[in-house]
Design a protein that fits this description.
Helix 10 packs across helix 11 (400-406) and helix 10 packs across helix 15. By secondary structure, the protein is of the alpha+beta class. It contains 20 helices and 22 strands. Helix content is 37%, strand content 20%. It binds adenosine-5'-diphosphate (ADP).
Length: 628
Amino acid sequence: MSKQTHAFQAEVKQILHLVTHSLYSNKEIFLRELVSNASDACDKLRYEALDHPELYEDAPNLEVRVFFDAEAKTLTIRDNGIGMSAEEAAAHLGTIAKSGTRDFMAKLSGDQKKDANLIGQFGVGFYSGFIVADRITVESRRAGLPADQAVRWSSEGTGEYELEAIARAERGTDVILHLRDEEAEFLSTWRLKAIISKYSDHISLPILMKKETWDAEAAKQVVTDEWETVNKAAALWARSKSEVTDAEYQDFYKQISYDSEPPLAYTHNRVEGRSEYTQLLYIPKKAPMDLWNRDKRGGVKLYVKRVFIMDDAEALMPAYLRFVKGVIDSADLPLNVSRELLQESRDVKAIREGSTKRVLGMLESLADSDSAEDKAKYADFWKEFGAVLKEGVGEDFANRERLSKLLRFASTHADEGVSLADYVARMKEGQQAIYVITADSLAAAKNSPQLEIFRKKGIEVLLLTDRVDEWLLSHLHEFEGHMLQSVAKGAVDLGQLQDEEEKKKAEEVAEAFKPVLERLKEALKGRAKDVRVTTRLVDSPACVVVEEGDMSAHLARLLKQAGQAAPDAQPILEVNPEHALVRRLADDPRFDDLAQILFDQALLAEGGQLDDPAGYVQRVTRLLAPAA
Ligand code: ADP
C-alpha cells in the first residue's frame, strides 16, 4: 500500500476543532487519554489471547512506555497491546463509530461555550493529542499480522490524514506526538512522571520511562537507556478479592483516607449488569471533624477503567453516607466526565444505588451478627455516625425500611442500643403505638413528667435527644405497622393499656374538677392555649404538651437557636387532679400565684425557658415566706 490521503469524516473535524479549542486550559489530560488507550489495547490483547495465546508472540509482558526526543520535539506513547491493522486505523482514527459520540454530535449547537460543556459527557480520547501536537503519527501492527503488514497513520488534525504500509517487528502501537513549539514543557521526565502519577498510578500495567541521572560534566540531568516503572501499577480494587489480604486492604485504606486507625469495615465487589463497576468501600472508625458539614464532599474517589478521574465524587454516595471512603471504578463512564455531568448520569445513579445498598448491607451484617465483636462494632459505629445515618430516613425513601431497622435509641429500659425491633418485641399486650419523647438531653428526657404514667405501667418510651431526631420523626411515622407517637403531643391515649375501671374513675375526677379548671383557664389566659385534666401524670402536679399537629416545643427551641422562625404556639397545660398541690388549689387564697407557678414549673420541667423568671421567683418566694 503506497501513501494515501483520506479526508476525515465531517464529525471528526468538528470534534477535533472542539477538543483543541475547548480543552486547552487542562491540556495535560492528553497523556491520561493516550495512556488509557494504550492500557485498553493491552487489555484487549489479554482478552483475545485467552483463546489465542499465540498472539503474545514472544512478548507476554504487557506494558506502556513513554519517552521523548527533546531535539525532534516528539513524545511517544508506546504499547505492546492489540495494535491496529490499516483498516482498523482508518476506521478508528478517521471516523467516529461510537454511537455515544454520534449522539453527542447531534446535540452540538454551534455555540462554542455550550458545546465545550457538552464535550465533558463524552470521551475525547485519541484526538486530545492534538491539543499539544501539530502532527500525530501512529505506527501500529495488529497482533497476529506479519511484520510487513503494519501501518503508519499520520495527520495534522485538520482536514485529512495519511495512511501508509510499513514494516514493524513489534506488535502494538506507537503514538508519536510532534509537539507544538510552545509545548516544550512536556519534554521533561519530571513533568511527565508527575502527570502519570496524578492520573495513571492505578493503571495495572507498568508504565515505563527512561531513567535520568546527573551528568556532572554537563552539570544537568541526562536521560539514560535504562527503563524504570513510574506508576504504582497496583490497582488493588481491580484484583480479585481472594488475592488481596486483609493487611493490604487496611494499608490501602490508610493511603486514601489519611486515617491513622484501621477501618471499621469494608466491602469489595465487582458489579456486572446494566452498569459495570468495581467498588471498594470503607467505613471509618471515627467521625471526622467536619462530619456535620453537609456540603462536605464525600470520600469516594472515581476511577474510570483504572484511570483516576476525581476525588470526593459526591454524586456517588448519598449525603447521609458522606463518611464512607473508598474507590469506585466504572467501566462505562467517559474519562472526561465532569462533576456536573455526574449528577445527571444514569450510570452514576445506578452506581449510587448499588453502593448505598452495599454500605447498608455492611452495616446490617454487623448489626444483625451473632458475634459479640460485630455487635460491639456496630455500637461503636452508631455512636460516631448514627446521627448522620438518621438523615437517610428522610432522604432515601427507597431504603427507609432498611434504615429504620438500623436505628438505635436510648429508652426508659436501656440507655443505648435499643432498636425499633427490640422495642416492638417488648411492647405490652394491647399496646399499639411506639412511644417516644424528644428532649435536649438524656437527663431531661428521663425526668420528663410526661413519662410518669408510662413508667408506672412499665411501658417503654424511646428517648430521643439528637438534634436530628425531630427531623427523623417528621419522616418516620411507623415501624412494622406501629405508629410512632410523641408522649408530649396531644392527649395521652393509652388505648387498651388502660382498663375500664381506670377510665371511669378518671372521668369522675375530671367532672368534679371542672370548676377549678375554669378558674385555671381564666388565670392563665394568654399563656396556655387550654387547661385540661390528664391521667399521664403520677408524681408531678402538671405538665405542658402541644396539640397533635403542632410543632413540638423542643423543635421550636432548636429552630430559634439556629436563628430560624418558629411559630409561637401556646402550649396546653395538663394537670394531675390527684396531686396534693392541685387538690388544695380550690380553697387556697393564693390561687392566682399557684396557677402561675404550676404553669412555669411545667415549662421548666419540659426544658423550656420562662419569659419572666423574676416574676416566677417572686411568686415562689411569697409562697415560701410565712403568711403575714
Ligand atoms: P475510545 O478510546 O474512547 O474508543 P479514542 O478516540 O481514544 O476513543 O480511540 C478510538 C479507537 O482507536 C479506540 O476505540 C481503539 O479501537 C483505537 N485505538 C486508539 N488508541 C489505540 C492503541 N494505542 N492501540 C490500539 N487501538 C487504539
